[in-house]
Amino acid sequence: METPTSQPNPSLSPWQRFGWLMGVIWLVFLAFPLISAALAPVPLVWRIIAVAAVVVFGALYAYGFVRMMRPDVSDPYRTATKFLLAMAAMFVITGLIVGIDAFGMTVFLLTFGVFHQPLRRGILLAIGWIALTVLMLVVTDSFATHGFFLALLAGVGVMTGIVRWLDDRQGAHDRLATELNLVAERERVARDVHDVLGHSLTVITVKSELAERLVDADPEAAKAELAQIRSLTREALAEIRATVAGLRVARLADELASAREALTDAGIAAEVPVSADVVDPRHRLVLAWVLREAVTNVVRHSGASRCTVQLQERSLVVMDDGVGPGAALAAGSAERTRAATGGTGLRGIAERVKGAGATLEITAAEGGGTRLEVRW
């Protein structure tokens, strides 16, 4: 049976879990300095020291790569620098014993520096190791026998530099994508809260005014209205909680019933379909939100006496005879048009509709008033 510790940590990305393989794979090239250390024409004790230095170098490199890929390193650049200094010390010890053959270790120093130092510093370190290798090849006149060290070092430097640059760009891209997603989620919650509260408070206001008129003339009816207000406030609170949790789903059939009731309570003659069956199920969610906001605007702002809702398979039309955005558009005033169409609710509708691949048109209705249409 697997223990909990045997499961991979879900908080670690694949790069954090396996990225060290990109560095450790180069350990095969330690064979060159290791063989040179073992066969160096020096006393046995020095050969043992050289071999031990190469082994410690490889262990530091491998452990350093694994350690640096973990997200819990408090100061990664400082920690990486410590590993680099320890590895450089092993390189110097080996070089003093075996000479130019120790320069097979520089590829590891270059790789570690490029991956685990700031990009600019890593590139400067890579250039420094290449320059040092060129200098030693010139001083020892070893281009014929060890020139491949330079070619290997340059090739690895270019490859690791590209990988590191791409990794940095990917990190910046991921951070930007995360920020954009966060902004979009905040806008969604704000839009949903606005839609929920705007509709609910509008209906509550209308019912409160109705209850106030009925309190003397018909106390029982007033009590019934107050009971509905209490029910609406509870529903609104539940919807707000669900919206913030990202779980709320508007239902077109429910919104049709709510729209009919809200319009009637506001004294607006309502022509609202009883069923939403004619609408393509793929579009009902968006149309439910649009209907809610459109009816809220009619009740709150239009001063209309009649409102008509029309449903088709791929469209919704809401028309009133009041003085809403359509009246502003018909008047031809830029200021009035911006004021009529720039509200939070209508912006929310526009964003929802655009995100669903539909079009939104707000025009003046025939005979006056406003006509809002959503169509796929």
Characterization of this structure:
Residues 1-8 and 333-342 have low confidence and may be disordered. The two termini are 54 Å apart. This protein has helices at 14-18, 21-24, 31-38, 44-68, 76-98, 106-116, 119-139, 143-217, 219-244, 252-265, 284-302, 325-331, 334-341, 344-355, and strands at 269-271, 306-312, 315-320, 359-364, 370-375. The chain has a 5-stranded mixed beta sheet. The chain contains 14 helices and 5 strands. Strand 1, helix 11 (284-302) and strand 2 form a beta-alpha-beta unit. Helices cover 69% and strands 7% of the residues. Helix 7 runs antiparallel to helix 8 and helix 8 (143-217) packs antiparallel against helix 9 (219-244). It folds into 2 domains: 4-178; 250-376, Histidine kinase-like ATPase, C-terminal domain (Heat Shock Protein 90). With 376 residues, it is of the alpha+beta class. The chain is rod-shaped and about 115 Å long.
Task: Give the helices and strands, then pairings.
Layout: H1 14-18, H2 21-24, H3 31-38, H4 44-68, H5 76-98, H6 106-116, H7 119-139, H8 143-217, H9 219-244, H10 252-265, E1 269-271, H11 284-302, E2 306-312, E3 315-320, H12 325-331, H13 334-341, H14 344-355, E4 359-364, E5 370-375
Parallel strand pairs: 1-2
Antiparallel strand pairs: 2-3, 3-5, 4-5
Helical content stands at: 55-70%
Topology as H/E string?
Answer: HHHHHHHHHHEHEEHHHEE
Task: Report low-confidence residues grouped into runs of 5 or more.
Answer: 1-8, 333-342
Shape: rod-shaped
Number of domains: 2
Based on secondary structure, the structural category is alpha+beta
Quote the average pLDDT. Answer: 80
Q: Report the end-to-end length measured between terminal Cα atoms.
A: 54 Å
